[in-house]
Amino acid sequence: MSREPRTGIATVCLSGTLDDKLRAAAAAGFDGVEIFEPDLVASPLPPGEVRLRCADLGLSIDLYQPFRDLDSTDPDRFAANLRRAERKFDLMEELGADTILVCSSVADDAVADLDRLAEQLHTLGERAGARGLRIAYEALAWGKEVSTYDRSWEAVRRADHPALGLCLDSFHILSRGSDPAAIADIPGDKLFFLQLADAPHLSMDVLQWSRHHRLFPGQGAFDLPGFLAPVLAAGYAGPLSLEVFNDVFRQADPDRAAIDAHRSLLALTEATSPVAQPAPEVRGPAFVELSAGDSLAPVLSALGFARTGIHRTKPVERWEQGTARILVNRSGGPAAVAALAVESADPAAAARRAVRLDAKRLPREHGPAEADLAAVTAPDGTALFFCRNGNDDWTGDFVPTGESADGIGITGIDHIGLAQPFDHFDEAALFYRTVLGLEPAATGEFAAPFGLVRSRAVADPHRRIRLALTVSLLRRGEWAPGVSEPQYIALAVDDILTATQGARAAGAPLLAIPDNYYADLDARLNLPADRLAAYRDLGVLHERTPEGDYLQTCTEVLGGRVFLALVQRLGNHDGYGWSDAPVRMAAHRRRRIARAHVPA
C-alpha cells in the first residue's frame, strides 16, 4: 500500500453507551466509526449532537448501519421500505454520514430474480443520489436470495447506479468458504465499504457463529491478509473498518477493547504492506523474572539452580542452570511472572514497533552503570524486555556471588505458561503474536476440575520462544483454595527421570499423582513395567501423540500462583501436555487443601 489506510470501528464492537464507545474509539486512535443503529436509538443524544461529538473527538462517521430487508416481491411492502429509507436519509443528513449499509434480505418475500432486485436497488440509489448519499449493499451469509459477494455484485452491476456500490464483509465471505480472489476484478469505485472480522473455525449455524464468535483480525483462523489483498488490488480506497459481534468484547472495558481492536488493524495493515518490516527475529528467552518474596529461592536451589548474582540496586537475585535464567524479585507481593526478556536481533526496533502496535512503553529507573533495556508492558501486566541476541550486558547489573551448582540436567526454558482473565484471552494472544512476531502453535480445550479451560499457544518458527496461554471459561466462587490465573515456567531437561530424581532428593516440593492415572497410562501406552513404576514413584505425567511424547513433573504452587515444571520432549512433539492438565490441576488442588487444612 502506498499510504496508511484510514481505520474505523463499528460501535457494535464495544461495550457501553454510544458516548462510551465513541470516546474509546477516539482514544485508541481510530479515524472513524460506523454507527450501529441500536446504539443511536438508545442514546439520548440527538443525531446532530452525535455529529458534533464525533467531530470534537476527531472521528468521522463513515457508515450508518444496518438497513434491513429492503427488497420485496410485495409492491406495497417495497413502497413502505422506501418510505422507511427516506426517514433514515433524513437522519443521516443530521449525523453527517453519507453512506448507509443495506443488507441482503432475509425475509420470506425477498426478491429472487436478479433483474427485479437490481431494479429495486436502482430505485433506492436514485433516492439516495438525489440527496448526495450512497448505498453500500452487502450480502449476508444467511441472506434468503443473496448470500455471496459475487451475487451481490451482479445485482449492483445490473442496477448500474453511481450512488450504489458494494460493502464487503470478511466474515460473510470467508465463513461460507468463498474465494475472495475475484474481488480484484470488481471496479474499485464500486467498492464503497469494507468490514473486517476474524473468527475461529466452528461447525455451527452461520448466524449464531456471526452473532457471538467474531474476533478482531489476527485472533481467529481466517486468512485476512489473503482476503484483504484482492480488495486493495481492486483499488478500494476507503477505511479498514471492524464489525465484530462478540459476547465478551461487548461486556469488556471499551477502552481496552478498542486498543486491542486498533492493534489488530495495525498488524493487518503491516501484514499486507509490501514495505512493512517484520518483527525483528527473536532467538529465545534471555530471562524470566518472578516476584516471589522468599518462597521461590529454596525451590530453585532444590531444582539445581545456582544463585549467580545479586542486583546492585534492587532486591533481585539471578539464578541460572544451563541457559535457563530466572530472576527472583524479593520485594514481596504474590508470586507472579513479572517480566519476560527475549533476545532480539534489534531490541530498539522491536520496542519501537511494539509501541506502534499500541503497546505501552515501560518507564524504568536504572543506575548510571546499569543496562537500559528497551521494554513495554503486555496487556496482562507482564513487563516485556528486549535484549540483543547473544549480548549479556544486562548481567553486569548483578554482582557475582561465585556460587555454582551441579544442576539436575535442566538445559533451558521450554516455555512459559500464562493464564489470562476471561475478558483478555484473545487480546493477550494477539499482543504476543504481533509484538514478538510469533505464530499460532496449538489450540485446544480440556475439562478441568473447575470447568472448561481453553488453551492457545504461540511460538516462533524455530520454537525458541513458546508461550502457552490458557483461560477458564467460567469461574465463580471460592469453594476450594483458588489459584487466580496460574502461571508456570516449564524447564527443559534431556532425561525426565534423572532430573526428577535429583529434584526430589534435594527436597523439591513435587506433586504426587494418583495411582489411577498410572493404571490408565498402562492401559493406553503399555509402557515397560520398570518405567511405569518410576513414573508412579516420581509423579511423572506422559502425553503421547502421533508426533512424539511429552513428559513432565511439576512442583506444587509456590506463593499462591506460580509453579515450575520439568519437561522432556521426545520425537517431534509440539504440544504442552494439555491432555494431562486436569490430572495436574486436581493434584494441585489436593495439595492446596492439605496445606490450608481445609476438609476436601
Automatic annotation (TrEMBL):
Pathway: Aromatic compound metabolism; 3,4-dihydroxybenzoate biosynthesis. Keywords: Lyase, Metal-binding. The keyword Transmembrane helix does not apply. Pfam families: AP_endonuc_2, Glyoxalase. Residues 412-556 form the VOC domain. Catalyzes the conversion of 3-dehydroshikimate to protocatechuate (3,4-dihydroxybenzoate), a common intermediate of quinate and shikimate degradation pathways. Belongs to the bacterial two-domain DSD family. This is 3-dehydroshikimate dehydratase.
